[in-house]
Amino acid sequence: MQVTTGGRLGADQQGRVIVRALDGLTFQFRDGDRVGLLGHNGAGKSTLLRLLGRIYEPTSGVVHIQGEIGSLIDVSLGIDPEASGRENIFLRGAMLGLSRAQITDRFEDIVGFSELGDFIEMPVRTYSSGMHLRLAFAVSTIMRPEILLMDEWLSVGDEAFKHKAEQRLKELVQATNILVLASHSRELVMHTCNRALWLEHGRIRMDASPEIVCEAYFGG
After folding, report:
1. Which residues are 26's β-sheet partners?
2. I need a surface site. Which of 140, 148, 161, 181 has the fewest CB within 10 A?
């Protein structure tokens, strides 16, 4: 059975519901690719990002990845509300694969960028939502991976901080060899990407230039 949005539904021999979120995908990304993932909610975009990020393992087929991967899918992952901002910098940095020495070397830059000042010594549970996001963003964007995975373009904080965040994201994207960006924004995909994949029911419906795919997906 196939549903309007989402993957393909079925059942195993025990009668358990099986959702085939991705089905029969074959593609290759090369250095210089800036790939926009398009598709309605449930089409498989986030699942594909998590597969590329090694969060999920494929139940069949092979995923071959060469290069260091950085993920901005969930910048707050690993943040402990009971720990201080200082402690969380080391916790989140470790999750990103950075050594304690590497985090220590970047610590002042992270704190300065986050604009948290003395609040860095306070438990994160005392932070406003904006402060929490600024800390998570500042830590998560210190990496310079060869392959960068993003689920929508991040927008963080007030207007002044948002300008800083935009510039930092642009520098991060420029520094990476391969970008894979899931988005619902035609303008973002057209402006940022040189290739677009349209996913539908877990399958690739179209793989071409952003101009061609966006015209087909969004309409003229």
Report:
1. none
2. 161
